[in-house]
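Dear colleague,

Following up on yesterday's call, I've attached the two folding results inline so they're easy to grep. Please treat them as preliminary; we haven't cross-checked anything against experimental data yet. The first protein's sequence and structure tokens come first.
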Amino acid sequence: MQQQKKAPAFKLRESSEEELLKTLVQFRSELVGLRTSKVSSAPQVKLARIRVVRKTIARVLTILNEKRRTAAKEAWKNKKYTPKDLRVKGTKASRSGLSAAQLKLQTVKAQKKAANNRTRKFAISA
């Protein structure tokens, strides 16, 4: 089994999805080999390599996810609705808050109180 170098993200972004899947399979098989050699008391160099391979696998998966999400966003760009996972998340307060029109609504009792207790305007300012 051959050892691969740590793959930088900018180089991974240039490659296609099929190439990314191939590298993912290669890194996963390398990780399996490293873990088996760890059990059979391998030198310390291989143990340090496990962390590098794990991080590289995470990097490849992240870039795959980014590519798939951007492709899905492009596909849904000019449609009437977008799927919930592609919508802008915002904050919880902005998602659950009332709209401006809903905030302005008043009950009948509140309308009467507001009409009876208007702020008074005086000709003389203090």
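Below is the second protein, in the same order (sequence, then structure):
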Amino acid sequence: STNAACSPVLVSERHALTQDSVRSSTRHPSTWSVDDVMRFVRESDPHALAPHADLFRKHEIDGNALVLLKSDVIMKYMGLKLGPALKLCYHIDKLQQSKH
């Protein structure tokens, strides 16, 4: 049910995550929430990508969607310029290599 996602317990647990918990844990990106993806984007490149983090909430990009993103889709549907789109793809590729 959708009510479970709004429970105070789940919200406080999510906020209790430390900055590097996503990076250091062995959790697959497929288990990531939209918030986890936004954290990954901000940490990957605070200068070039962090300003675009809110787009991932707007477009409901969770971990499963993140690993499917390609640069043309990022530019066409999310409105990123080529530079940030390529950087994002680089970090996504690196993420997928590290999970094996």
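For the second protein, one point worth flagging: DSSP finds seven helices and no strands in the chain.

Best wishes,
A.L.
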